[in-house]
Structure formats: C-alpha cells, structure tokens
Amino acid sequence: MKLILLGTSGYHPTDRRQTACLMLPEVGVVLDAGTAMYRTREYLTTDWLDIFLTHTHLDHVIGLTYLFDVLAGRTMTRVAVHAEAEKLRAIDTHLFAQPLFPVKPPATFCPLTDQVSVAGDGRVTHFQLNHPGGAVGFRLDWPAQSMAYVSDTTASIDSTYVDRIRGVDLLVHECHFRDTMAERAALTGHSCTTQVAQVARQAEVGKLVLVHINPLETADDPVDLAAARAVFPRTELGTDRLAVEF
Questions:
Q1: pTM here?
Q2: Backbone torsions φ then ψ of 161, nearest 5 degrees
Q3: What pLDDT sits at residue 204?
Q4: Residues 228, 192: contact at Cβ < 8 Å?
Q5: Which residues does the chain have with pLDDT short of 70?
Q6: Nearest one of 93, 89, 109 to 101, comparing CA atoms
Q7: What is the pLDDT of residue 74?
C-alpha cells in the first residue's frame, strides 16, 4: 500500500510544507485535513472519501473548507468526516458558522466508533493522546499491512498509546521539535526527536516517518535525523508529496 504525505508542517504552512494531511489513494482514506487538503484532488481515484481527524486545531481541519474544489466535477458515493463527536460539533458550530463559511461542504459527519471499516477489508481504530484540547491517534489494519498515525502529542515510552501501535509496518509520528526544545514541546503538547524514536523502538514498528515539523525550522534537516536514527535506524524525514510504501 502507498501513503502520500500531502502536508508535513505543524501549526502553519510554509513555502516548503503545507499542514497535516496524509492520503491512502487506493482505499480513499485521508488522515487530517490541513492546508494540504487541496492536493487530494490530484490523487483521488475512488468515488468515496473517508477523512479521519485527529483533533480540531485549525492546522488539521481548515482543509475541510476546500472540499468544494477537491470534489468539483466528480460524482461521489460517499464523503465522510470521522472524528470524536464533540470535535464534529465544534467544527459544525465554529468552522462552518454562517459568518465564517456559510455553505457546508458535501460531507457526512460520522462520530468515531470503536472500529470503522474502510476499503480493502481494512479497519480503523483510535486511541487517546495527551494534547491540549484533546486528540486521538489512529491505527489502520488490513490483512497484509498496518500503519499508525500519531499527531499531536508529547511522545513517551510510558504512554498508553505505545501498546496500541505495537508492531505496525509503518508509524507516522509528529516530531515538531529538536531535542533542545524539550521544555517547549512539553508546554505545547508536542514531541522531540529522540522521544519519538524511542517510542518507535519500544513499539517494535517496521518503519518510522517524522511529520508535523516546526515551521520555523528552515534547514534541510529540521529535526536532527541522525539523533533519531541512532535510536531507531529505520527513520525517515517526511516531506510534502513523499510516497511511502508499506
């Protein structure tokens, strides 16, 4: 299976990165709807779309307002937005408030259940993450592949979510800060490089890809990739439009 990283920045877009949005085109699944959501139009090959939201901070949901253009000229059998019920209510009440965005996009809001079925005999489960305002992570399982998406949280090998992602072929995990910014990471509910690599090793995942990069970092290596690989060698830095096979 192929995962396309459409947006890999945290907080706000930059000239190099759009904010959080990942896509599995062959099964019509999108994870988070940040500013990169407009790019899903290029990769959409199914007549359905299942969008799973980790939480409702604007850098993860603003792309829902782009759905009219994403779907223009297409006949869709289903467009579903999956999130915790309280988060869906917040989107409906605030993001789509009449003064802000008066016409709701053509999508059905679906509160998360313990397990959601997706194409290819897949199932999506979610788990709680520690982040201001609340967030969830997702595990996606098919008969021959599995992946997990963790954004946003402060990584720790003692976190309960480590067992929920154990053994996946691919872990896509936020890595907003370098190790030197640990205090800032704890304050904002984000992760540092070594912490994330330790989680990947503890959970015995197949591959780790780092996303939700600090937009103030302008270097080609914004997270100190060597520090991550010293702990978990099978680590890759996520970049916009990177295709990851798993």
A1: 0.97
A2: -70, -15
A3: 98
A4: no
A5: none
A6: 93
A7: 96
Q: For residues 54 and 82, what is the distance between their CA atoms, to the nearest angstrom? A: 9
Token pair of 19, please? Answer: 């904010």
Structure tokens belonging to residue 12: 């706000």
Say what the pLDDT of residue 237 is.
Answer: 98
Composition of the chain by helix, strand, coil, percent to 5: 30, 30, 45
Partner residues linked to 109 by β-bridges: 81
Q: Residue 16: name the closest of 243, 242, 240, 241 by CA.
A: 240
Architecture of the domain spanning 2-245: 4-Layer Sandwich (3.60)
CA angle 27, 28, 31 (to 5 degrees): 110
Helix, coil or strand: residue 47: coil
pLDDT value, residue 196: 98
Residues in the chain: 246
Query: Are the C-beta atoms of 21 and 37 separated by less than 8 Å?
Result: yes
What pLDDT sits at residue 167?
98
φ, ψ at 233 (rounded to 5°): -60, -30
What is the CB-side half-sphere exposure of residue 135 using CA atoms within 13 A? 26
Say whether 235 sits in a helix, a strand or coil: strand
Contacts of 47 by beta carbon, 8 Å cutoff, 6+ apart: 74, 75, 76, 77, 78
Q: Can you tell me whether residue 246 is helix, strand or coil?
A: coil
Q: Which amino acid is at 67?
A: L
Q: What is the pLDDT of residue 34?
A: 98
